[in-house]
Structures are given as structure tokens and as C-alpha cells.
Amino acid sequence: MASGDVLPRFFSVFLSHYSSESFMIPTSYYEHLPRRLPKTAILIGNGGKIWKVATKSIRGQVYFEQGWPSFVADTELKDGEFLTFVFDGYNRYEVSIYGHGGCKEIRAVVEVEDISDDESESDNNSGESLVSVTQV
Questions:
Q1: Which H or E run contains 75?
Q2: Are 74 and 108 in contact, with CB atoms under 8 Å apart?
Q3: Where is the TF-B3 domain positioned along the sequence (predicted)?
Q4: Total domain count for the chain?
């Protein structure tokens, strides 16, 4: 893919009745892609958390299936919230959530904790700082 090419992006309004267990990707979106969608996609939230989701074709429509319910639960999606999806052309989507107030919200934040100096000195003789990652 040439560096000047821009892949289509898409948005959707979340409706729990239709999208809690699976999420339909708009046909008009994937019909314009230069290649087929991957069988497994990575969703990256703006809070830093990552979800692995399976894509599945059902009667000519493509859905995020396995893994999607975890994304919904972890981000605490509510009816009427607006989602944007930016595809990297391979298998990753940057997903942004806009709440009812119209502002982009940070959800499912990954927190980084420093390990105390006592622990890092005994485990790390080089004197480098160690970092522990905890997903919330």
C-alpha cells in the first residue's frame, strides 16, 4: 500500500440490543478495502488496553464476534455512544469512544506502576528501573 493511500474509517452508534454480543462492520466500509479483512483483529482503545476479536462472515455481512463482548464490558459501552474505527490496513483498529456529551472518553485504562527501589535493586543489578503493567 502506498504511503499516500488512506484507508476508509468508519463510525457507529452503539445500541446494546444489536451490538452487545457481536458488531456488524458496515458493508460500505469493507467493500472499499484493498484486501479482505483479517480473521482476527486487534482493537486498541484510547486508554491503552488491547482486545483480540475474531471476524466472521454471516450471510454476506462481516462481524466482530469472539472477543467483542469483552470489549463492550471493559469499556462499559452505553446505548447511544458513538464509536470510531481507524484501521491500519493489516489487523489493528484504533477505537475511540464518544460519550453522550459528544466528547472523546478514555476507558479501560492501562496503569503503569513503579516497582519499589528495594525490589528492583535485588532483582536488577544493572540499576535500571523496572515497570509493572496492570490492566484495569
A1: helix 68-75
A2: yes
A3: 8-101
A4: 1
